[in-house]
Amino acid sequence: MTAYDRLRFGGPTSRALWVDVPRAEFLTPVAPAWPLRTERLVLRPFVLDDADAFVDAWASEEWTSLLLSRPMNRAEVHAMVRRRTEPGDGEFFGLAVATHDGTVVGDSMLHLQGTGLSEGEIGWTILPEYAGRGYATEAARAVLEMAFVHFGLRRVVANLDARNDRSAALCERLGMRREVDKRGDFWSKGLWTSSYEYALLAEEWRAQQA
Ligand SMILES: CC(C)(COP(=O)(O)OP(=O)(O)OC[C@H]1O[C@@H](n2cnc3c(N)ncnc32)[C@H](O)[C@@H]1OP(=O)(O)O)[C@@H](O)C(=O)NCCC(=O)NCCS
């Protein structure tokens, strides 16, 4: 039964019966053991001291030009990092990405979504001085593994400004498919621009690992 059927005939949808209700009853998201480690990187929850690493990038109009957010000053970056260190709703995982020697090179996030929290949105930034080394790809692979293995998600999406070629290339490297090409739907820094949604299903991710 689809949501449309439910309006016509009443009663819960098949998804509510078989996915959302059991998940809500039995599967409250529990974070994995931190940090996540990859060959070159460590992904972990933010600490207040991380803020300084992001100040210059967030002040840059160029670096922030394709992000939804406008540039931020030092105080705003510190406030953002402070918010990320506070307990949240258990559905948003914003992670600092550092090299093994502790140098912060960017961040990544996973936001669990959908009524049964069976879907997620992934996001990423790499500080300009560390771009072009494959760090974003390596971090995102770790976040996808957390999404599909630890949280058992069914589907992960990424939303981006259609002009963000580097982010789109990253999605393609990760094997994500461009599913949605929305024209002029996205208000960013004074103009309407277009956006893409990329997606990856658990079975597609598993096929990549084989
Ligand atoms: C989007 C963003 C994270 C992509 O970063 P990126 O540096 O292009 O991606 P990676 O870190 O995965 O690096 C990939 C590049 O490193 C190269 N590379 C070098 N050494 C590598 C290695 N050991 N392993 C893998 N790739 C390596 C790859 O060949 C690739 O090069 P190319 O871009 O010339 O093809 C970055 O541009 C960014 O943070 N932008 C600003 C914020 C932003 O827009 N965020 C996204 C919002 S949707």
From TrEMBL:
The keyword Transferase is annotated on this UniProt entry: yes
Residue intervals of the N-acetyltransferase domain: 41-203
One Pfam match: Acetyltransf_3
Keyword Nucleotide-binding attributed: no
Alphabetic keyword roster: Transferase
Recorded GO MF terms: acyltransferase activity, transferring groups other than amino-acyl groups
InterPro entries associated with the record: Acyl_CoA_acyltransferase, GNAT_dom, N-acetyltransferase
Entry coiled-coil feature ranges: none
Protein name according to UniProt: N-acetyltransferase
Species: Nocardioides zhouii
Source species taxonomy: Bacteria, Bacillati, Actinomycetota, Actinomycetes, Propionibacteriales
